[in-house]
Design brief:
The chain is of the alpha+beta class. It has 2 domains: 58 residues; 85 residues, PH-domain like. It contains 5 helices and 6 strands. The strands form 2 sheets. A 3-stranded antiparallel beta sheet has the order 1-2-3. A 3-stranded antiparallel beta sheet has the order 4-5-6, with helices on one face. Strand 5 and strand 6 form a beta hairpin. Helix 1 runs antiparallel to helix 3. The longest helix has 28 residues. The protein is elongated, with a radius of gyration of 21 Å.
């Protein structure tokens, strides 16, 4: 059973996944467009094209090395009796609070990168939004999903006992 009223951290495997996703993202955003610009506009850019690709590569490597440890240190989640909280971010910190009694769907998901690293995520859906516990060990993901489900069912059954429908 998850520890209540205490912030928990993600799996240490999360840094590996964060590095992989950072490398893929920076490749798509920086390196590929810079290389395309250097290739297609080499007559116009000349040596500036090579400098553009080199700068994109340096920025990509720096981001891939620096961002994941910062994101890992900031990522926290809390499972309380009445709510769940998820805190995450790099430059802008986002704190998501979801009331337990508003949850109507719980999913455990593993994408190809999650499987490669050995982590899972628990998606919690309400009528208006969703939240994700990311970077969890698969056993912890199962445990959290079952605990949230039991808590939600307990609240529903508790409300049903007091009201005639």
């Amino acid at each position: 059973m998850p520890q209540l009223e205490q912030y928990r951290t993600p799996s240490p495997k999360a840094i590996t996944l964060m590095r992989i996703t950072s490398a893929i993202g920076t490749f798509l955003i920086l390196i590929a467009p810079a290389a395309a610009a250097a290739i297609f506009a080499r007559d116009i850019l000349g040596k500036a094209g090579l400098i553009l690709v080199a700068a994109a590569l340096v920025l990509s490597v720096a981001y891939t090395l620096i961002a994941p440890p910062i994101r890992f240190r900031r990522y926290r989640y809390l499972i309380a009796k009445d709510r769940i909280e998820i805190i995450e971010g790099l430059l802008f910190i986002r704190r998501t609070i979801v009331p337990i009694d508003r949850i109507y769907q719980i999913d455990i998901r593993k994408g190809p990168l999650d499987n490669a690293v050995g982590v899972a995520k628990v998606m919690v859906t309400t009528a208006g939004s969703s939240a994700a516990f990311r970077f969890l060990e698969p056993d912890a993901a199962d445990e959290i999903a079952l605990y949230i489900n039991e808590t939600v069912l307990g609240k529903i059954q508790g409300k049903g006992d007091r009201q005639d429908v």
